[in-house]
Design brief:
- This protein has 2 helices and 20 strands.
- By secondary structure, it is mostly beta strands.
- The strands form 5 sheets. Strands 8-9-10-11-20-16-15-14 form an 8-stranded antiparallel sheet, with helices on one face.
- A hairpin with a 6-residue loop joins strand 15 and strand 16 (245-252).
């Protein structure tokens, strides 16, 4: 009897310990009136902004916007996104919008809010996702022409935006998927342009030419990366209040339009070497999304402590897209 009791007790201890370890890394998603937050165990991973976020005091209120991700954290808890930098108030952590558009003979810009011709906004939450080792959400966003003008406002794109996060081999892997449907009667023409499109990133404000850089799958950096193509792009920089570095990498799915997409990379002469990045599927050749057509773009972020490891990132990219 004592042997069976000891065996049973050992099994209970093992079960409790396993449950503790599993629970410590269990992904979760929570929604409030303002945010959708993803966490893994006790660690925050990212926040999606449902409510309109105002720009810094003294800035033009036109830069207020919803429908973006900030902050994103590294596994050690460092923030790896920046918002509303003085040089570009419309840069918002992780976000996306088309820039130089032609709609019904008019020049429309969903990116540069100061133009007052377009904006992207949160509409509603479609679902919260919690499945074993991953958690996330799908929201509906609108890309609207002449926002706020009752006589002109037109929704051009209705978008299903899905974000799913998990912890894989010490790094956060975050899927960033967009399905944009042209729900208007107007064609969205996208002439070739140097930036704009399905994913953009602004790094923490303290990252500059002295403590950060880019590294692409083709070995390009801030010196020679702009307009080149890549399967993935890593942006890394120093931690703000501790030693060491953090890296945010964007993996580019092989089924995306114009893959491997060209990159918008800032040189060291731009804003003291601040890190801004954009995959641009129209950088070389224009495109068009006609009424009723859909555009699907897929990316995966890899967020980890330390500088980028090309071997590890290649392995993650092949696992993501399949050989």
């Amino acid at each position: 009897m004592s042997y069976l009791f000891r065996l049973f007790a050992s099994a209970l201890v093992l079960l409790a310990f396993t449950s503790f370890l599993f629970g410590a890394q269990t992904p979760a998603v929570e929604e409030t009136a303002d945010l959708i937050e993803i966490s893994i165990g006790d660690a925050a991973v990212l926040s999606y902004r449902k409510s309109v976020v105002q720009p810094p005091e003294g800035a033009d209120p036109i830069f207020a916007r919803s429908g973006f991700i900030h902050p994103v954290y590294s596994p050690s808890g460092a923030v790896v996104t920046g918002i509303h930098p003085d040089d570009h108030y419309h840069h918002l952590g992780l976000w996306h919008a088309w820039v130089s558009c032609e709609i019904d003979g008019k020049d429309i810009d969903f990116w540069n809010l100061k133009e007052k011709t377009g904006k992207v906004r949160y509409v509603k939450t479609t679902r919260l996702i919690s499945k074993g080792s991953a958690a996330g959400f799908t929201v509906e966003q609108e890309h609207v022409m002449y926002p706020g003008d009752v006589n002109k406002e037109t929704v051009i794109l209705r978008e299903a935006f899905t974000v799913i996060a998990r912890l894989v081999e010490g790094a956060y892997e975050i899927d960033y998927n967009t399905v944009q449907t042209n729900v208007s009667k107007l064609s969205l023409r996208l002439p070739a342009y140097r930036y704009g499109g399905p994913i953009a990133y602004r790094a923490p404000h303290h990252w500059d030419k002295t403590n950060s850089d880019y590294l692409s799958s083709e070995g390009k950096t801030r010196i020679d990366g702009h307009t080149t193509r890549s399967k993935w792009i890593a942006m890394w920089g120093a931690k703000a209040s501790a030693s060491g570095n953090d890296t945010l990498t964007i993996l580019n799915h092989k089924e995306n339009h114009d893959f491997p997409q060209r990159m918008r990379v800032w040189p060291p002469t731009s804003n003291n070497g601040a890190i801004f990045f954009n995959y641009v599927p129209i950088q070389e050749t224009g495109w068009e999304i006609k009424p009723g057509q859909k555009s699907t773009m897929r990316y995966r972020l890899v967020v980890r402590d330390g500088k980028p490891d090309s071997g590890d990132l290649n392995k993650r990219w092949y696992r993501y897209v399949g050989k």
